[in-house]
Amino acid sequence: MKARAHVYVSGLVQGVFFRSNTKRMADMLGVKGWVKNLPDGRVEAVFEGEKEAVASMVEWCHKGPPDAVVEHVEVIWEEYRGEFKDFRIIY
């Protein structure tokens, strides 16, 4: 079953390689979508793929990379669209 999650991660999540580690995890799990930094200090991401893989990405976001301090993760489950060919970092 396919799934899509739109995620906002708050805390110390910029300047700690959050985006590059998110891409590495997504590529390992076969998840497609994107991740970017927001001006307010949060990280935003969209994950699409097999439901278990997307759930693993959401779970990973609660910890993030070693130097991150995740305070809150907002997850909005959306209808799967299949609009991505890969996982990208948006600059």
Task: Tell me the layout of helices and strands.
Blueprint: E1 2-12, H1 18-29, E2 32-37, E3 43-50, H2 51-61, E4 69-78, E5 87-90
Helix pairs in contact: 1-2
Describe the protein's architecture and organization.
- The protein is an alpha+beta fold and about 90 residues long.
- It has helices at about 20-30, 50-60; strands at about 1-10, 30-35, 45-50, 70-80, 85-90.
- It is built from two helices and five strands; from the N terminus they run E-H-E-E-H-E-E.
- Strand 2 and strand 3 form a beta hairpin.
- The protein starts with a strand and ends with a strand.
- The longest helix has 12 residues, at about 20-30.
- The protein is globular and about 35 Å long.
